[in-house]
Amino acid sequence: MKTKRCENCRNPLGARHAHNARFCSGRCRMAAHRAARRQADPTPSAMTRRRQWVRHTARKMPLSVVGSKVRPASSTDPETWSSYSAVSRSTAGVGVGFVLSAMDRLVCIDLDHALLDGQLRPWARRIVDMLPATYIEVSPSGTGLHVWGFGSIERGRRIRRGESAIEVYDRGRYITVTRNPFENAPSRLADLTRVIADLL
Q1: Is 32 helix (H, G, I), strand (E, B) or coil?
Q2: In the annotation, is 112 catalytic?
Q3: Domains in the chain: boundaries
Q4: Are 157 and 167 in contact (CB under 8 A)?
Q5: 113 counts as catalytic
Q6: Which DSSP symbol is given to 82?
Q7: pTM given for the model
């Protein structure tokens, strides 16, 4: 007879466990639950634990879901931002967005038109290859990448070199979040200070 094992730690489930038990302990049950949530939603916890979330329209206008009425949100007014769980539950607009604030050192590098027919353009590949392991996702258009991490630039910058189009922001902007990771991007944020310095 095949030994039944815990779905998390793979240790054998002894006779003291119920016939339909899947885990050997509450700790293993919670660990498996957290792992399943991470797999279903790759958004880094460094972002989801902050109350800097909004919804957005198809035209990328930010929407506030604070209170019972949906209204326009502001990238500079925290009173219009919500928790991640609140915007995830809401059906307003077409998606969610994260507001960058100078308070937390979170930064986003927007690589516009980085993908052509699903393939990374050479200029974008050079940038992606010099990144530390950090969260990267495909933009709503399917042609750009949003690189998330830690850093500081004090004011937004746009850089154009040849066919490359790069924007870097760390405050006063909201960025759409698709939850569609690029390649094998991890669900964590790295320090992008050196990369930003090289780009600027």
Answers
A1: helix
A2: yes
A3: 1-40, 45-199
A4: yes
A5: no
A6: B
A7: 0.78
